[in-house]
Amino acid sequence: MAAIATRDFRARAAAAAGDTALHRKLDAASLRFLDKRARVFAALPDADARRDRARAVKAHAIATLDTLLPELERRFTANGGIVHWARDGAAACAIVLDIAARAGVRLVVKGKSMVSEEIGLNACLEAAGIEAVETDLGEYIVQLAGEPPSHIITPAIHLSQDDVAALFTARLGEPLHSTAEALTAAARRLLRAKFRAAGMGVTGVNFASAESGTLVVVENEGNGRMALTLPRVHVALMGIEKLVARDEDFAPMLELLPRSATGQTLTSYVSLVTGPRRNDEIDGPEAVHLVLLDNGRTRLLADPIMREALYCLRCGACLNACPVYRRIGGHAYGYAYSGPIGAVIAPALLGIERVPDLPFASTLCGACRDVCPVRIDIPRLLLAWRARIAAAVPRAWGERLLVRGWRWIAWSPRLYRALTPIVRAGSALVARIPALARLAPPLAAWRRGRELPRAAPRSFHERWRDRRHGTDPDAP
Amino acid sequence: MPRETILNAVRAALAGDRVPPLAPIAAGAADALDGAALAVRFTHEARAVGTIVHEVGSRAAAVDTLVAILDAAAPAPRVVAWPTALARELATAAVARIAGADLRLVERATPADAIAQADLGITEADFLVAESGTLVLRARGRARTVSLLPPTHVAVVGRERLVADLGAALARVRAMADRDSCLTLITGPSRTADIEKKLVVGVHGPCTLHVVLLERVEA
Ligand code: SF4
Hints:
A: alpha/beta; six-stranded parallel beta sheet; 52% helix; globular; B: Rossmann fold; four-stranded mixed beta sheet; 12 strands; binds iron/sulfur cluster
């Protein structure tokens, strides 16, 4: 993980907003995802009812975490696994380091895990002299580039094939490959050696059931299976919100996650892990550790408005759907979780002082809510964060004055009506002579990146009155 | 203790919440399909994700199919296989018909390198999920790496192992007395779209996945 840079959002976003090459890459990938998602959802019978059911499963699990977490611990331990609890990222990293030290591990292979990005595990392992290799192709690419992932599902979404080929040549000494197939084959060859030599595999967890202590790992490449099968130690990192109550809840979740994420009916591989290798099994790890991470999640849980953010499956659909994400990319957000859901959970996990801008990086168009498989009302949560941030973090005086003035006008119909013709005339004037807008400082700042809309020639009330008299000139 | 700190925070956050019980997950509509209809659905879905499905009527035909797959995979192919009854029988019969072919039944701990060097791994699916074209593989007595390390994976299976949907397959697994340490669901070959959204198969797992689907397994 790069250092958390949520405070630099404005500068990073402004730079990315001018990067048309980035926009092309983001559009190409995310619009394809969205299109495939729309098609598989159209083909899924009762898709809306299934989304309601998935939401109910998560809502129930989150509301009963107090009983489910100890139950998961009991079950997983009975299966022969080892459970660890981590209050924050540093504690989780310390736990993994300790496991590695006790097992004499020098090399760690990693399946895709957003929690690992969240807690900055790679930097931690490397500081302790342990090599950590990302093995998901996209994660491998961004690790070689020395960058954080820029999308939950497609970490290297911001890089072109030529970028990747150049990277493989510079960092790995590969000849300059000219196809995605050749690049993938190179990664397969190089990472096979790592899988063979690694003493520990680290993966994330997509779902876990309290009923049986089963961990579900969803992936397409087979690197997750490698990481949880070949090394002698498997460490699974899991946010406490990933729990479901029962094994039968897996099917409704697995039905929706791949469809939302990549438009697949099911991913190539799903592993359901209950613990270490049994006596009558031939392969698999000797030890399986489960690290349960809080890191601010209990703060979300205690917050009745924000709690539903814990239902998130990390499918990435809201990123693809977001017109803001598609213009600035994941790096602008400065945190492991980007896009609409990132803007909701970052203030909770990091504190609003460190995240003053992210909830404002939205048009509130609602596209994220429309695609969310568990129907998280992201715009509502963003608005709630805005209100809290506005109350806690002082805004610029110009903005405060403007909003105060607006409130005063909007509360008085008479004042509103009286001022309307003046604003209309002003707006018409600015439309004719755009240089005028640069004169008023608050307007000038606002206009950077926005078009000043022109006031309609007649108000809704005027049109409504005319319409009732059949004299509306704009009527169709 | 971090455990107590976290659990106390969870309890405090949820204090006073009343939670209605969760409804059981109802069986899907696909449950009503019979064996032949399930086979049609499975074949359709599996082919859609790049699995090569061979529908065969008899064991003899299954062996013929395996011989053809082995011949195409490599000259003098090296084969690793599960020691389960059907996989053992078909693999043994097929390998016997190819000059220079080598078969290793993986019955006990075997170095991963030995399995990785094989051209082809043969397993036996415990269940097939019709709705998504998915293979369900258990781990007890069956090496997980056989379906992972060789470049080609062939699963042999009889039609009676077909179930309608994932929920039904997982319910069958739950009903088993002993839990395996790992249950693997496989839907198509290993794939990625991490470079410019281009689909590439065979990233870390097998590039090619065959399913030999027998109409009847009983002799
Ligand atoms: S908020 Fe919803 S759409 Fe966004 S990643 Fe989470 S589950 Fe997916």
